[in-house]
Every structure is written in C-alpha cells, then in structure tokens.
Design goal:
It is built from three helices and eight strands; from the N terminus they run E-E-E-E-H-E-E-E-E-H-H. By secondary structure, the protein is α+β, with helices and mostly antiparallel strands. It has one domain: Nucleoside Triphosphate Pyrophosphohydrolase, CATH 3.90.79. Helix 2 packs antiparallel against helix 3. The N terminus is likely disordered.
C-alpha cells in the first residue's frame, strides 16, 4: 500500500477588519455591517494587511473604502475569526481576520466602494445573527457585553 503525500497545511491569509459602532440616544450601541461584493452576505469592512501601516490603521482604511466611515479606531484587537474567502476563480483561501473596534464619528456621503455594497445599522444582537461566520458573531456578542473602547 503506497502512502499519499501529505499536503502541507497552509497558513491562513492575514486580514484586518473594523467593527464599526455608534452610540444611540438611549446609550445603547448600533453596529454597521456591509455586504460583500461577491456573495452579498453581511460582513464587517475588512481587507488584507497594508505594507507600511499598522493593522489597526489598515482596518480604519478599509472602513473608509467600503463604508465611508471616519472615527476612532481601537489599537487593540477585540479578537480574530477565520473564514473561507471565495476568490474570483472559484477557489477559496482560509483567512484570519483581526478585528478592531471603530467608534464612528462621521459617515461620508461619497466613498470609493459606495456603488458596490449595501450598508445597514443593526443592534449588536441582530448584527451577530446577520453574519454567517460564527467567530465574527461571537466577537460582536462579546464586544457589546462590555463597553467597546476605541
């Protein structure tokens, strides 16, 4: 019996994401989600790390590009989650997303990906229910059990 060669497990791709939130008049919080371009599922603004930028800076840049958000980004991640990123050629790659809190101060009228995505503000509980990645749902739920700090 011949042994099949073992494929080396690949390191997950490193991404960064922003968990955008704002405080409402009653002192609660709302979470902003965006749709992904390909599958149109609800996600947080995220992308690949950027050379010359700290991870939290890259996360803030993604929030601007994908949702027109400006605010106070936290320097310490809330956690990370794994997901399968679907590529244009129909392959997928495992990605690890480090998530940083972003307290939204302003939402711009124009931003780079405005025509490519939908945006919606959710309660934290509804946001956790709307995302398909269990790890991201867990981060959202735990972030709003305590006060998120930017």
């Amino acid at each position: 019996m011949t042994k099949m060669p073992q494929e080396e497990p690949r390191e997950p791709g490193r991404q960064v994401g922003a968990l955008p939130f704002r405080r409402d008049a009653e002192g609660g919080c709302e979470v902003l989600l965006v749709t992904s371009r390909e599958s149109r599922r609800w996600v947080i603004p995220k992308g690949w790390t950027m050379k010359g930028r700290k991870p939290f800076e890259a996360a803030a840049q993604e929030a601007y590009e994908e949702a027109g958000l400006v605010g106070e980004i936290g320097r310490r991640p809330l956690g990370f989650y794994l997901y399968e990123k679907r590529l244009k050629n129909r392959d997928s790659v495992l990605c690890q997303v480090k998530v940083f809190p972003l307290e939204v101060r302003k939402q711009l009228k124009r931003w780079p990906e405005r025509e490519q995505r939908d945006l919606r503000w959710f309660t934290p509980s509804d946001a956790a229910d709307a995302v398909t990645e269990p790890g991201l749902a867990a981060i959202i739920r735990s972030a709003f059990k305590r006060e998120p700090t930017a």
